[in-house]
Amino acid sequence: MTETATSELDDSFHVFDTTLRDGAQREGINLTVADKLAIARHLDDFGVGFIEGGWPGANPRDTEFFARAQAEIEFRHAQLVAFGATRRPGAKAAEDPQVKALLESGAPVITLVAKSHDRHVELALRTTLDENLEMVRDTVSYLKDQGRRVFMDCEHFFDGYRANPEYAKAVVRTAAEAGADVVVLCDTNGGMLPAQVHAVVSTVLADTGARLGIHAQDDTGCAVANTLAAVDAGATHVQCTANGYGERVGNANLFPVVAALELKYGKKVLPEGRLRETTRISHAIAEVVNLTPSTHQPYVGVSAFAHKAGLHASAIKVDPDLYQHIDPELVGNTMRMLVSDMAGRASVELKGKELGIDLGGDREVVGRVVERVKERELRGYTYEAADASFELLLRAEVEGRPLKYFEVESWRAIVEDRPDGTHANEATVKLWAKSERIVATAEGNGPVNALDRALRVALEKIYPQLAKLELVDYKVRILEGKHGTSSTTRVLISTSDGSGEWATVGVAENVIAASWQALEDAYTYGLLRAGVQPAE
Ligand SMILES: CC(=O)SCCNC(=O)CCNC(=O)[C@H](O)C(C)(C)COP(=O)(O)OP(=O)(O)OC[C@H]1O[C@@H](n2cnc3c(N)ncnc32)[C@H](O)[C@@H]1OP(=O)(O)O
Ligand SMILES: CC(=O)C(=O)O
C-alpha cells in the first residue's frame, strides 16, 4: 500500500471525486489509462481530498490505472480510492477475489458498495437481509484489519429507506460498527428532491450517529441541491464528479458543489488559492474526456457571467455585483458583455472597455454603435458570437471610417462540375494594398476555401504576418428557411493565429458572399491583432 497524499485539509469534511469511476459510467465517455492519469492529476491539482480511480479487478484498465497512478503521480492533496462491492453471499471477505483485488490495488482508501434496499437484497443479490448485513460487516472489518480506510456507499439508500427504514438504518449501523469511516447515503436512481434528502439525512444521523456522506445522481436535475441539502442536514462527505459526468444524466457536479461550499457556506474545502483554478480545471477535464465544455455550466461556463440585456449592463456599469452572484474571478472565470440587439449604451461602453477601447463617455458615438448593431442584427448579423466583427464596427465608428489594410476591387469564385463526377473550385481576388494592385488566383476543396486561399496569397505578399493565420471553424446558418435557396445566409468564421482565436460574421443571400465578408473581417482583424498600422 502506498501512502499517496499529504493533505493539508482537515479530515472533518471530505470532497470526494468519482469522475474516474462513476463519471466514466456516462454514455460516450471512454477513458484510456493515460486519460485517467491526466484527470487524476487535474483533480489533485484542484485539491479534492479523494479521487476514486475505478474498480480494480473489474477490468485490466482500472487495475493498470492503480498501479501506474501510484508509480507515476506524486499526489499533493488527494488520496487514491479503490471502489468495489462487498463480498459475495455465503463466502468470506478474506477469500473473495474481488476484495483481494481491492487490497492489491494498493489504494489507501476503499469505497465499498453495499445494498441497503431490502428489495435489492432479495431480488438482485438473491440473498437474505441478514446475510447482506453480514457481507457488510465482514467486508468492512476485514479491510479495516488490513489497514485501509473504508467508506461504505449504501446503494439505493433513499428508496430503500422509504420501503423499509429500519433495514436501511441497520445497514448504516452495521457498517459504522464494523469500522467504516464514512457511510455514504446514495440516491442511486436520482429521484430525490432536496427536502426529502434533508429529512432522511437528519433522521439517519440522529438515529445512528454514523458519519454520513452523500452521493447524488442527477435524474431530477437536483443532484447539486440534494448534495447541499444533505450537508445542511449534517453530511460531512460529498461525492461528486467533474462537470457532473456520470451514469444516465449524471452526478452531482463537483464544481458548483465546491464553489457553494467555499463561497456560500464559508467552508474551506480546497487548499489555499485552488478555487480560482475551478474554470481551468473544469475545461481541462472536458478536453481529456473529449466533450465540449458546457457553455452554460454554473460558475465555469463561458456564459456563466456573460451579460446580454441592456438593463443589466446599465446597472453593472455602476456595480457588477448588481447582476452577479459572485465575483467571477473567485472561480477563475470572467465577466463578458454581449453586444446584440438587446444592448443599450451601457453594454457598448462596457464592451468597449473590455476590448481596451476608451469611448470616453462619447454619447454620440455610443448611440451610433447601438443603432448600427440593432440595424445589422435585424438583417441577420450576430455580434455576440462575433467579437472581432463587433470590434471592427466599433473602431469604424470611433475613427469615423472603417479600418482598411486593403481595398478589394473584385473577387470571383468558380465551381466547375465535370461529367465524370469530379469538380474543381477556383477563385480570383483583385485588390489594392499599400498602393500595389495584386491579382491572385487559387484552387481549393470548395469555393470558400479557394477564396480564402486566393485572399491569403494576395495579402501575404504585402503582409507576411498573415502566414500564421488559420481558419479553425466555419459555420453556416440559413436564417429564413421559408425562402429556400434564396434565404438569408449567416456565416461565422473562427480564425486563429496560434496565440488567440477570434470570430467574424458575414450575412448575404449568397453563402459565398456571406463567407467573403466574414473572411475580410477575419484578415483585417488578424492584421490589427498583429499590430500592423492600417493604410492612411
Ligand atoms: C450504483 C453503481 O454505479 S455501483 C458501480 C457499478 N459499476 C459497475 O458495474 C462497473 C464495473 N462492473 C463490472 O465490471 C462487472 O459488473 C463486475 C466485474 C463487477 C462483475 O461482473 P460479473 O461477475 O460478470 O457479474 P455481473 O456484472 O453480471 O453481476 C454483478 C454481480 O455482483 C453482485 N452484486 C451486486 N451488488 C453487490 C454488492 N453490493 N455486494 C456483493 N455483490 C454484489 C450481483 O448480485 C451479481 O452477482 P451474480 O454474478 O451472482 O449474479
Ligand atoms: C454507488 C453509486 O454510484 C450509486 O449508488 O449511485
Automatic annotation (TrEMBL):
- Show the Pfam families listed in the entry: HCS_D2, HMGL-like, LeuA_dimer
All copies of the Pyruvate carboxyltransferase domain together span 13-276
For this UniProt record, the keywords arranged alphabetically read as follows: Amino-acid biosynthesis, Branched-chain amino acid biosynthesis, Isoleucine biosynthesis, Transferase
Top EC category: transferase
| CDD domains (UniProt xref) | DRE_TIM_LeuA3
Membrane-spanning residues where? none
What pathway does the annotation place this protein in? Answer: Amino-acid biosynthesis; L-isoleucine biosynthesis; 2-oxobutanoate from pyruvate: step 1/3
> What's the catalysed reaction?
pyruvate + acetyl-CoA + H2O = (3R)-citramalate + CoA + H(+)
EC numbers for this chain = 2.3.3.21
Q: Which domain of life is it from?
A: Bacteria
Magnesium listed as a keyword: no
Q: Which PANTHER family match?
A: (R)-CITRAMALATE SYNTHASE, ALPHA-IPM SYNTHASE/HOMOCITRATE SYNTHASE
Q: Which NCBIfam families match?
A: citramal_synth (TIGR00977)
Family the UniProt entry places it in? Belongs to the alpha-IPM synthase/homocitrate synthase family.
The protein here is known as Citramalate synthase
> Which lineage is the organism of this entry classified under, starting from the top rank?
Bacteria, Bacillati, Actinomycetota, Actinomycetes, Kitasatosporales
